[in-house]
Amino acid sequence: MHFSSDDLVCRIACNLEQVHTADEAMRAWLPLVSGLQPVSAAFEAAPPDGLRRGYLADLLVVLPFPEDGATGAGSTRSRLLAAVDALAVRLGLDPADFEADEDGVGGTLKAKDEKDGSPYGAYLVLALTGADPLNPDGGEKDYEDTGEGLL
Fold first, then answer.
1. What are phi and psi of 60, to 5 degrees?
2. What burial letters (b/e) apply to 106-140, b meaning 16+ CB within 10 Å?
3. How many Cβ atoms sit within 10 Å of the Cβ of residue 63?
4. pLDDT in tens, the chain (151 residues)
5. Are 62 and 3 in contact (CB under 8 A)?
6. Dist. CA 9–CA 63, nearest whole Å
7. Per-residue CA distances from 94 to 15, 113, 131, 139 (Å)
8. Which one of 16, 95, 109, 143 is least enclosed by Cβ atoms within 10 Å?
9. What is the rounded (10 degree) CA torsion for 7, 11, 83, 15?
10. In this structure, is residue 148 part of a structural domain?
11. How many Å is the maximal CA-CA distance in the chain?
12. Alpha-carbon distance 145 to 139, whole Å?
């Protein structure tokens, strides 16, 4: 997937621990998914032997940078912070917890603890200007190794 340098690309990780069915999880996430309109979304039950419980969501969201007079003409860093602040508030996270990278083109927002108050169970936001934070080069990844040595 290719993105514009005017796009803020975010990976949002969510975990609803208190739901017992996929139907409950999807109903809880529906307002978030409808509002953010992710370009990619993955939903799954947390593995029984994993660190998380309940249901997990991974959303790839593309946000335009703010274009108002206060931030639209500002630096990439100030526009990044304005966009992340709005997203953090929507997710129920504290915008002050966002840590921008040294270039000011991306960063990370982590929930202080798992019960941080996000109604969607959001616990991690990775943000990068113009590229997927998990794949900044934009190429598709193809790994020949099966990963059996990691087990």
1. -105, 110
2. bbbbbbeeeebebebbbbebbbbbbbbbeeeeeee
3. 15
4. 788 888 899 999 999 998 999 999 999 999 999 999 999 999 999 999 988 999 999 999 999 877 655 544 567 788 888 899 999 999 999 999 999 998 888 999 998 776 556 789 999 999 999 999 998 876 555 556 665 665 5
5. yes
6. 6
7. 17, 11, 24, 32
8. 143
9. 160
10. no
11. 54
12. 18
Q: Domain range for residue 73?
A: 7-134
Cα-to-chain-centroid distance, residue 6: 17
In a domain, 27, yes or no: yes
What is the number of other CB atoms lying within 10 angstroms of the CB of residue 29?
Answer: 21
Residue 144 lies in a domain: no
- The helix/strand/coil state of 26 is helix
In a domain, 147, yes or no: no
| DSSP secondary structure, 14-78, as one string | EEE-S--SHHHHHHHHHHHHHHH--SEEEEEEPPTTSS--SEEEEEEEEEEPP-STTTTTS-HHH
Calculate the dihedral angle through the C-alpha atoms of 146, 123, 139, 40, rounding to the nearest 10 degrees.
100
Say which residue the tokens 């590229």 belong to: 131
Q: Which two tokens stand for residue 35?
A: 């509002």
SS3 78: helix
Tally of domains within the chain = 1
Q: What is the pLDDT of residue 66?
A: 74
